[in-house]
From TrEMBL:
This is Probable transaldolase. Its main location: cytoplasm. PROSITE patterns: TRANSALDOLASE_1, TRANSALDOLASE_2. GO terms for cellular component: cytoplasm. Its EC number is 2.2.1.2. The active site is at K83 (schiff-base intermediate with substrate). Pfam families: TAL_FSA. GO terms for biological process: carbohydrate metabolic process; ketone catabolic process; pentose-phosphate shunt. It catalyses: D-sedoheptulose 7-phosphate + D-glyceraldehyde 3-phosphate = D-erythrose 4-phosphate + beta-D-fructose 6-phosphate. Pathway: Carbohydrate degradation; pentose phosphate pathway; D-glyceraldehyde 3-phosphate and beta-D-fructose 6-phosphate from D-ribose 5-phosphate and D-xylulose 5-phosphate (non-oxidative stage): step 2/3. Belongs to the transaldolase family. Type 3B subfamily. One of its GO terms (molecular function) is transaldolase activity. The keyword Acetylation does not apply.
Length: 217
């Protein structure tokens, strides 16, 4: 499973990228707002750090506007994936931009039917939102599994990009289901390294080592 980091914060991207943990980046209008940066400027900086797909989201609500914005965002770098919403207009824009040979990430997906339509429209990525479904007492991971089944049934090549990931557990569950990519905040990716028994074991080793009076260096 590829790891994308869901942020527009350069420091976080750089830290994870240096460790080889970043296969791509996803941004959205809320993350751009949080960064306080100009969308084109910050996206260009991200693309200079990460060679994999970097999603930049359109904000128009009509297909024509999304297509124009998508083409403009694609000028930033060769690895831009244009993000459009899963609306009927978004699907129209997806078809046009995909036919032009551009990477398209169809976002705000909350149902298997929506994912099926995005694949038919030629999406490179479909972004089903796990956490926001869980927030409503629905099962976000079940949606990932349903889309996996449907895409595999028909050999759709659209990549399942599990999004709105809120916990390390979401990451391992997505990997078990077979999501192609998971995009998560940097804190969630880092939390995957945590285990209470690791901390407990390390504490015991450190105390015992001190009792030996030895030094390695
Ligand atoms: O990039 C979209 C997505 O990952 C948003 O996550 O936590 O705002 O639901 P969240």
């Amino acid at each position: 499973m590829k790891f994308f980091v869901d942020t527009a914060e350069i420091d976080q991207i750089r830290e994870l990228s240096d460790l080889g943990m970043v296969d791509g980046v996803t941004t959205n209008p809320s993350l751009i707002m949080k960064s306080g940066r100009d969308i084109k400027e910050v996206t260009a900086e991200i693309c200079s750090i990460v060679s994999g797909p970097v999603s930049a989201e359109t904000v128009a609500l009509d297909a024509e506007g999304m297509i124009a914005e998508g083409r403009e965002l694609a000028k930033i770098a060769d690895n831009i994936a244009i993000k459009v919403p899963l609306t009927w207009d978004g699907l129209k824009a997806c078809k046009v931009l995909s036919d032009e040979g551009r990477m398209v990430n169809v976002t705000l997906c909350f149902s298997a039917n929506q994912a099926l339509l995005a694949a038919k429209a030629g999406a490179t990525f479909i972004s089903p939102f796990i956490g926001r479904l869980d927030d409503l007492n629905m099962d976000g991971l079940e949606l990932i599994a349903d889309i996996r089944t449907i895409y595999d049934n028909y050999g759709f090549e659209t990549n399942i990009l599990a999004a709105s990931i809120r916990s390390a557990n979401h990451m391992s569950e997505c990997a078990k289901i077979g999501a192609d990519v998971a995009t998560a905040p940097a804190a969630v990716i880092k939390a995957m390294a945590n285990h209470v028994l690791t901390d407990k074991g390390l504490d015991a080793f450190t105390k015992d080592w001190a009792k030996t009076g030895q030094k390695i260096l």
